[in-house]
Amino acid sequence: MDLSSAVSATASTLRRRPADLLPFYLLGTAVPVVARMGLFVALAGTYLHYELTGRLADARRALADLDLTPPDTQDPEAVQAWGESVAPALEPLASPTALLLLTVGTVATLLLAILTYAAVSAGQMSAVAGRVRGDRGLPAGIAGVRGRWLTFLGLYVSEFLLWVGVSLLAGLAIGGAFLVNPFVGAVVALLALLVGLVVLLLVRAVFAFAPAAVVVDDAGVVGAVEGAGGFIRSNPVDALAYLVVAVGVLVAISSAASALAFLGGGAVVALASAVVAAPALDLLKTVLYGDHRGAVAPIDPVDARLRDQFVGGVRRGWREMIGFVRRTPGLHVITVLVGVGFGAVGWLAVDPFVGAFTTSIESRLVGHLPPTAALNFFGNNWSVAMATSLGGVALAVPALSSIAFNGIALGATAALEENLAALLAFVVPHGILEIPALFISGALGIHLGIVSWKTLRGRLSREAFADSLENAFWVLMGIGVLIAVAAFIEGFVSPYYWRPFL
Predict the structure, then answer these.
(1) Could you tell me the CA-to-CA distances from 309 to 9, 10, 272, 305, 472 in Å, in that order?
(2) Which parts of the chain span the membrane according to its record (predicted)?
């Protein structure tokens, strides 16, 4: 199969039943939400440690006796003196136990990120392979998470070690040559740079196709590397064409992100790269490798126009969202209670710092550009909704933590606000859509956590779990409609209408 045919097959596969593939790529956006649970637990443990030992009460009493009014930032000596006066009050918080908890939490977060990324990648590529074979993608992806996560972890660790090994060998060769003679060192450095670059490019090329070999051949780490190497030797033109396309896509994404950064489009570009570019590239290399192995089912082109598909998808997403809200009132009540409860926690937690630190909605709106802000709000908030919802697959805890985190952040911001009336006036017009959208995403995350737990216990089949993931995709499309309207209001209406009155 030539590159043109592979691209056509990729586009047709991606457009035909996108909800049978894209949920795993939306799940990729939830990796940070799942991983930060390690740090959240450490922070909760640190807070509990402070409370039980009386350190937090000591810090509060010490801060209450101080004038926490911040000095003029234009006067360095005043700032330094203010910092020196506040520092002793915070000394009770400098606990070895707290430092140990935070260190362990940081390490746990890093490990969770690596393991979760490997599991999600295994699911993504397994779903892609299922679609390429003509099967349903989501059940194949669910099976791939359980059966292949360790293989994908092995691939990533192996490539990392190869990069480190090649770099160390080059460094040792250059260092030894310079000890002999500076001229020889310069020559060896040039050769090491050229040879090392070629070797690293070959390593990247092999490991680019190795995931496809894992899911097409059902191979382990060694077999996948051998299969990828064999594909490159047998089809150098196709392999090179894919690498050129992949590099071109990455360059285009980077350029678009840089060009749109000042327009607030960075979040939208990042979202598009995660849920459009990533699955397209995975499909393309799997189609190429699968054709090499004779494992690609015939793929018919999609007759419907892209515009018609988009409009139909938006309508279905809205219907599915409304239906989900009606079916799960209890989950929404739980989400609202968590959000409001932790909002109160955020309000109370920053009480000792009121006056020392302030936030100002009016200051944040200085230089506000409506189109830029609306685009940025849409990208950020929809990404948060996706991560909150799909993060719930990890037994609902990350979804609840995401709602709690946002509640704390909003409560703390409100407590420190200089002009609370202005903040409320700003939030209300778009908040009546944006806040319910985030609550719906939290309820969806809890629902997926329940479904995930039942599947692990054997009370639900993989097909039923796949049905829930597919439904969640459409609910998120409906949430996207709410967030898009809220973003428009937040960009063009919320910053301005209240100014004549407040």
Answers:
(1) 18, 17, 17, 6, 18
(2) 24-48, 98-120, 153-177, 183-203, 239-257, 263-284, 329-350, 384-408, 420-453, 473-498
User: Is 80 inside a domain boundary?
Assistant: no
Contact between 264 and 373 (Cβ < 8 Å) = yes
Under 8 Å between Cβ of 469 and 456: no
Q: Which of 136, 145, 144 is nearest to 20 (CA)?
A: 136
- pTM of the entire predicted model: 0.92
- Per-residue pLDDT of 278-318, as tens digits, reads 999 999 999 999 999 998 988 888 888 889 999 999 999 99
**What's the distance, CA 331 to chain centroid?**
24
pLDDT of residue 262: 60
DSSP string, 384-400: HHHHHHHHTTTTTHHHH
The partner residues of 359 in beta bridges, in order of sequence, read 417
- Choose the final residue of a domain: 235, 270, 292: 292
Contact between 408 and 338 (Cβ < 8 Å): no
- List b or e across 95-125, with b for residues whose CB sees 16 or more CB atoms inside 10 angstroms: eeebeebeeebeebbeebbebbbbbbbbbbb
The whole-angstrom separation of Cα 178 and Cα 213 is 42
Query: How much of the chain, in percent, has pLDDT values that exceed 90?
Result: 73
Query: 385 lies in which domain range?
Result: 304-492
**Amino acid found at 153:** L
Nearest in space to 384 (alpha carbons), one of 426, 442, 337: 442
Q: How many CA atoms lie within 13 A of 75 on its CB side?
A: 9
Judge whether residue 66 has pLDDT over 80: no
Domain termination site, one of 292, 322, 337: 292
| HEC readout, 60-76 | HHHHHCCCCCCCCCCCH
DSSP letters along 140-163, please?
A: HHHHHHHHHHHHHHHHHHHHHHHH
208 lies in the same domain as 313: no
User: Which SS3 state, helix, strand or coil, does residue 275 take?
Assistant: helix
- Whether residue 471 has pLDDT greater than 70: yes
Share of the chain above pLDDT 70, in %: 97
**pLDDT the model gives residue 68:** 67
Residues 283, 316 within the same domain? no
- Residues whose CB is less than 8 angstroms from the CB of residue 476 and which lie 6 or more positions away in sequence, other chains included: 26, 317, 385, 386, 389, 441, 444
Domain for residue 68, yes or no? no
One domain for residues 139 and 283: yes
Q: Does one domain contain both 236 and 322?
A: no
Angle of CA points 247, 249, 251, to nearest 5°? 70
pLDDT at 73: 67
11 and 34 in a common domain: yes
Residue 18 has pLDDT above 90, yes or no: yes
Q: Which residue has the higher pLDDT, 365 or 116?
A: 116
